[in-house]
């Protein structure tokens, strides 16, 4: 079977971690699988070829690089990783070839910096696989119809991996990273967070959209549409990590069947805006949201009542939002430094009492809820940023997430 393996920045950052990468490649190859290996840029901000280091370099040089050339520069980090891995494999006598995203057949639109994949032509990859080669692909990048190099935005290598997996109808896409899988919460916030053996595409998509950075939501959507299973697992262990698959398989196979809550996610740096309106019919609500939309400010946590409009924007957009609202002559109250905490579970639909348990847990911890909202699969609460970690910890305990069986 064809396996797509994706290795993130920390998995490639030094010689020791690259030895772990080689171990996973050798193991799957020994099993007789054909491998496509997608790589990110090596390391994190500060390390020479990391994407954030390249971005800092651009900023330090006056941000004078046009978008097209910026993508040319940003695409280099992954090329260095791909060439490095190719040389390591060749040194071991394992035949390998390294390709740019474009050479691997990844076609994108021309939105430099956040291009979307519009198609994948897997013909060249399949030829190399037929020849018995390991195909290494630079992640996070593609090429337009006219041959321009583009990058895919944050988490783009995850998207490269699942898009290739979908095009090649891979048996599995393995996302190797620096944690043991998808955890019940970000381990940097909740030390008791536990790896989940299995989650549905929808659940991880929800977690990812609500801030869990472990995999990019667009990558999950592509895998879901193509029905390709994904595994998120650690580069540094032999654990099998978290299997991401269809909700019905999760229900059938998961030992942990009756879970209303799967995990928690968080987003910091949110500003709450409260716009007061006169009683009675008016078009203020409409004008507020139209002003935000036409100025490209995305809004969240929307709450419309006869007395006013309450919503959130990211801190970076708050200044502009306030200026627009002020210009419309509206009375606005703003509160910056808020955090959105999300409680996510495919099984919470129709389950009574989840909200009550959330309120109970946060009240017991002395944490005020500034706003809340809910859907079939997620309950969101807005809290002050300094309450975020205690809120995550209180909710993690309240839903028994530290008891998830591995
Ligand atoms: P990579 O470079 O391998 O792509 P990322 O930093 O993008 O790695 O993603 C892995 C990180 O995601 C982890 O180190 C962890 O801190 C963070 N993370 C956030 N939420 C979760 C979660 N629910 N489960 C696992 N990791 C999470
Ligand atoms: Mg990542």
TrEMBL record:
Q: In which pathway does it act?
A: Amino-acid biosynthesis; L-lysine biosynthesis via DAP pathway; (S)-tetrahydrodipicolinate from L-aspartate: step 1/4; Amino-acid biosynthesis; L-methionine biosynthesis via de novo pathway; L-homoserine from L-aspartate: step 1/3; Amino-acid biosynthesis; L-threonine biosynthesis; L-threonine from L-aspartate: step 1/5
Biological-process GO terms, alphabetical: diaminopimelate biosynthetic process; homoserine biosynthetic process; lysine biosynthetic process via diaminopimelate; threonine biosynthetic process
Q: Which domain of life is it from?
A: Bacteria
Please tell me where substrate binds in this chain.
51, 78
GO MF terms listed in the record are: aspartate kinase activity; ATP binding
List, alphabetically, the Gene3D superfamilies matched: Acetylglutamate kinase-like (3.40.1160.10), VC0802-like (3.30.2130.10)
Q: Does the keyword Kinase apply?
A: yes
- The UniProt annotation places ATP binding at 6-9, 177-178, 188, 213-214
Top-level enzyme category: transferase
GO CC field: cytosol
Q: Does the keyword Amino-acid biosynthesis apply?
A: yes
Listed EC numbers: 2.7.2.4
User: Record's Pfam families?
Assistant: AA_kinase, ACT_7
- Keyword set, alphabetical order: Amino-acid biosynthesis, ATP-binding, Diaminopimelate biosynthesis, Kinase, Lysine biosynthesis, Nucleotide-binding, Transferase
Spell out the reaction equation it catalyses. L-aspartate + ATP = 4-phospho-L-aspartate + ADP
Reported function = Catalyzes the phosphorylation of the beta-carboxyl group of aspartic acid with ATP to yield 4-phospho-L-aspartate, which is involved in the branched biosynthetic pathway leading to the biosynthesis of amino acids threonine, isoleucine and methionine.
Family designation: Belongs to the aspartokinase family.
The name of this protein is Aspartokinase
Annotated organism of origin: Cohnella fermenti
Q: What is the lineage of its organism?
A: Bacteria, Bacillati, Bacillota, Bacilli, Bacillales
What is the name of the gene encoding this protein? dapG
């Amino acid at each position: 079977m064809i396996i797509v393996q994706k290795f993130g920045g920390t998995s490639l950052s030094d010689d020791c971690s690259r030895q772990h990468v080689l171990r996973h490649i050798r193991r799957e190859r020994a099993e007789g699988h054909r491998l496509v290996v997608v790589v990110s840029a090596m390391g994190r901000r500060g390390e020479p070829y990391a994407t954030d280091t390249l971005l800092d370099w651009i900023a330090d040089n006056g941000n004078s690089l046009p978008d097209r050339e910026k993508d040319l520069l940003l695409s280099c980090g992954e090329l260095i990783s791909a060439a490095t891995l190719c040389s390591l494999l060749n040194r071991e006598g394992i035949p390998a070839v390294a390709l740019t995203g474009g050479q691997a057949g990844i076609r994108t639109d021309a939105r430099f910096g956040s291009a979307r994949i519009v198609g994948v032509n897997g013909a060249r990859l399949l030829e190399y696989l037929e020849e018995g080669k390991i195909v290494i692909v630079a992640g996070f990048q593609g090429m337009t119809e006219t041959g321009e190099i583009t990058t895919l935005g944050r988490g783009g290598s995850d998207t490269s991996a699942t898009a290739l997996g979908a095009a090649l109808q891979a048996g599995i896409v393995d996302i190797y990273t620096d944690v043991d899988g998808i955890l019940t919460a970000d381990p940097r916030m909740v030390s008791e967070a536990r790896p989940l053996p299995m989650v549905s595409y929808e659940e991880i998509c929800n977690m990812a959209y609500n801030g869990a950075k472990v995999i990019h939501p667009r990558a999950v959507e592509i895998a879901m549409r193509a029905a390709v299973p994904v595994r998120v697992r650690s580069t540094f262990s032999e654990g099998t990590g978290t299997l991401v698959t269809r909700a019905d398989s999760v229900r059938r196979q998961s030992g942990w069947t009756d879970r209303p809550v799967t995990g928690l996610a968080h987003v910091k740096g949110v500003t709450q805006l409260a716009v007061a309106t006169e009683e009675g019919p008016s078009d203020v609500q409409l004008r507020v949201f139209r002003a935000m939309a036409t100025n490209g400010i995305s809004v969240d946590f929307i709450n419309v009542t006869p007395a006013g409009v309450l919503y959130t924007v990211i801190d970076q957009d708050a200044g502009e939002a306030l200026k627009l609202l002020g210009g419309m002559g509206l009375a606005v109250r703003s509160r910056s430094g808020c955090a959105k905490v999300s409680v996510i579970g495919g099984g919470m639909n129709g389950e009574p009492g989840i909200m009550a348990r959330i309120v109970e847990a946060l009240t017991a911890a002395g944490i005020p809820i500034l706003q809340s909202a809910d859907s079939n699969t997620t309950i969101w609460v807005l809290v002050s940023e300094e309450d975020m970690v205690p809120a995550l910890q209180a909710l993690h305990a309240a839903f028994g997430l530290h008891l998830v069986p591995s």
